[in-house]
Specification:
The protein is α/β, with parallel strands linked by helices. It has three domains: 145 residues, no CATH class; 136 residues, Transcription Regulator spoIIAA (2-Layer Sandwich); 59 residues, no CATH class. It contains 15 helices and ten strands. It has an eight-stranded mixed beta sheet. α9 links the parallel β7 and β8. The chain is globular, with a radius of gyration of 22 Å. The mean pLDDT is 94.
Length: 380
C-alpha cells in the first residue's frame, strides 16, 4: 500500500514531550543552521511560510477532523476517535493519520514548527494563532522553538501579544552557558544573550523551557560548560530545564572536528560527572528539571528544584560510587533498552539478560565504550 500524504505540511522535528501534539509548520528549517553539532537542516535553506499557506493548512486539519468524526460514526463509535478508529484510518485513510493520532490523544496541544517559528512577524503569528484557536477551541497548549537571538528582536509587548493570542510556551536551545563553548560550536549567541532572552520570555508571561546539551564542552571545556551553564540557568530560573546528551552525527561539522582530533568527546561516566557538577551549582532556581530523552544515561534525574535537588544529587552519587564493572553493566543495560533506572539492576531477569550482553562484549574484542558508541548510532 502506498501511503498518501496529509493535506497539510509538517516539518522533521519537535521536542520529545510534544510527541502527541499536532505539528503546524510556520517556517521551514533553521535561519541560523551553523551549529557544529546539529545534523537536521545542513543541506536545506530556511524560508518563512505565508500566513495564507498556514491558514490553508489549519482549514485542511479542520476538514480532516470532520472526516474522522464521520468515519467514527460510520464505524459505530459515535464520533469518538478511539483505538479502533485509528486502526481503521491506518488501513484505509493513511493521509488522516496525523490528525487521528492527535485527536486520539486528546487534541489539546499544538507545536509550531520548524526550528524558529518566531522568525515570522509577531502580527502574522498572532493571526495564525487566532485562527487555530477559533477552529479548535479545545486546544489548551501551543508551544514553539525559538532562538535567543530571535527573542531579543521581539519586545516584551510583542511577546505578550503572542501569549494573548494563544502561545503558551517557548522552547529555547540554550545548549550551554559558556561563551567559549557557544563560540566553538558556532551557536551564534552568548550566555548573556541567553539570560536576556529567557527573562524576556518570562516577563511576557510565557512558559520557558531551556535545553542543555550535556557533553558539549568535550574533554577540554567540560568544567566550564557545567559551571557557566549553571550560572546562566540561575540567572534565568526557567520554568523547565531539559537535559539532552550530545550524540555526534556522522554528517555534521562536529564529526569532522572529532576526526581531526580537535574535539574530544566525553564518555558516559565523564558526562555524569559533568552533570553532577552542573546540578551542584544550580543554587537559585525553582525550575522543574527533566531528563526526558533516550540518549540520557540517567533518566531518573528529574524533579522540582530546590526541594528535590538533594535526591537528584544522591542518584548521581550512587551511580558514580558503583565499581567500574557495575557502571559498565548499567550502561550496557540502559543503552540496550533493558534498564531505565538504577533500581532495574535489582531485577533478576533484566540483570541476567544484561550479563549475557556483557560477556558477549567482552568476548567480541570491543571495549564497553566502543560497543555503546555503536548502539547509540541507532538513536542519532
Amino acid at each position: 500500500m502506498v501511503l498518501s500524504k496529509p493535506a497539510f505540511e509538517q516539518g522533521p522535528i519537535r521536542p520529545p514531550n510534544e510527541a502527541t501534539s499536532l505539528l503546524l509548520r510556520l517556517t521551514r528549517n533553521c535561519p541560523w543552521n551553523r551549529c557544529l553539532f546539529c545534523p537536521v537542516y545542513k543541506t536545506k535553506k530556511f524560508s518563512r511560510r505565508s500566513v495564507e499557506e498556514v491558514k490553508q493548512d489549519i482549514h485542511a486539519i479542520a476538514a480532516d477532523k470532520d472526516k474522522l468524526l464521520e468515519i467514527s460514526k460510520q464505524e459505530g463509535h459515535g464520533g469518538d476517535i478511539n483505538r479502533a478508529v485509528v486502526a481503521r484510518v491506518h488501513h484505509a485513510y493513511p493521509e488522516l493519520l496525523p490528525v487521528a493520532f492527535w485527536q486520539y490523544h486528546g487534541g489539546e496541544t499544538v507545536f509550531l514548527q520548524d526550528g524558529d517559528s518566531l522568525q515570522l512577524p509577531h502580527g502574522q503569528v498572532s493571526e495564525i494563532l487566532s485562527l487555530l484557536k477559533e477552529k479548535f477551541p479545545e486546544i489548551k497548549r501551543i508551544t514553539t522553538y525559538a532562538r535567543s537571538r530571535t527573542i531579543l528582536r521581539r519586545s516584551v509587548e510583542e511577546l505578550t501579544e503572542l501569549r494573548e493570542a494563544g502561545l503558551d510556551r517557548v522552547h529555547i536551545g540554550m545548549e550551554s552557558g559558556s561563551d567559549a563553548v557557544l563560540d566553538y560550536m558556532k551557536k551564534g549567541v552568548t550566555g548573556t544573550q541567553h539570560i536576556e532572552a529567557g527573562l524576556r520570555v518570562k516577563e511576557a508571561g510565557l512558559s520557558l523551557s531551556e535545553y542543555v546539551l550535556l557533553g558539549l564542552g568535550g574533554q577540554d571545556l567540560w568544567q566550564e560548560h557545567a559551571l557557566e551553564t549553571a550560572k546562566v540557568l540561575n540567572a534565568i530560573d526557567p520554568h523547565f530545564i531539559r537535559f539532552r546528551t550530545l550524540a555526534i552525527h556522522s554528517n555534521t561539522p562536529l564529526a569532522e572536528e572529532v576526526e581531526k582530533g580537535k574535539f574530544k568527546p566525553l564518555h558516559d561516566d565523564a558526562i555524569i560527572r559533568e552533570e553532577k557538577l552542573l546540578i551542584e551549582n544550580l543554587s537559585a532556581i525553582t525550575s522543574y528539571l527533566y531528563s526526558d530523552h533516550i540518549l540520557n544515561l540517567l533518566e531518573e534525574i528529574s524533579g522540582k528544584f530546590p526541594g528535590e535537588k538533594q535526591r537528584i544529587e544522591k542518584t548521581l552519587e550512587k551511580y558514580l560510587e558503583f565499581p567500574e564493572q557495575k557502571r559498565e553493566m548499567f550502561r550496557l543495560g540502559r543503552r540496550s533498552g533493558y534498564f531505565r533506572t538504577l533500581d532495574d539492576m535489582d531485577n533478576p531477569s533484566l540483570k541476567e539478560a544484561v550479563e549475557d550482553i556483557y560477556q558477549q562484549v567482552k568476548n567480541s574484542g570491543y571495549s564497553v565504550d566502543e560497543y555503546i558508541t555503536r548502539l547509540l548510532r541507532r538513536f542519532i
